[in-house]
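Async update (no meeting this week)

Hi team, since we skipped the sync, here's where things stand on the single-chain job. The sequence we agreed to prioritize is pasted below, unchanged from the tracker. I ran it this morning and attached the output directly underneath so nobody has to dig for it. Comments welcome in thread, and please keep replies under the output.
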Amino acid sequence: MLSHGGRMPFSMNLRDMSDLINVEVVFGTLESQQLISISVASGSTVSDALAASKIGAAFPDADIANLPTGIWGRPVERKQTLTDGDRVEVYRELEIDPRESRRLKALGRVPGPFESR
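Output:
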C-alpha cells in the first residue's frame, strides 16, 4: 500500500529511473585494482561507461584510451551497447605469456609476481 496519497515520495519518477542501467567498470595492475559501480543512460556504450567512471584518473600511467576492452571476459569494441548488470573490463598487456611463465616456473627460472626480478 502506498502512502503519500498514492504518489511516489521524494518526487521519484519511475520513467526516469528506467532510463538508467547499472554497470561496473574494472581495471587493475599488479599493485592496484579498481571496480567502479556507475549508472548510465540506457543505450550507453562501453566508451560512455569508461568516460563516466573516470577510471583513467585512477591509473594515470595506463593508456586506458587505447587498451582493449571486454564485457564479462568477452572482448568487445568500445561502441558495444551495454545492458543492465554488465561489467566493463579494460585489459592491460601481459608482461609475459602465461604459457611461457608456467614453463619458466617449472624450470625454476621465474620469481613470483611480488618478488624482485
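Quick observations from my side:
The helical segments are 14-18, 46-53, 55-58, 98-106.
The chain has one domain: 4-106.
Reply here if anything looks off.
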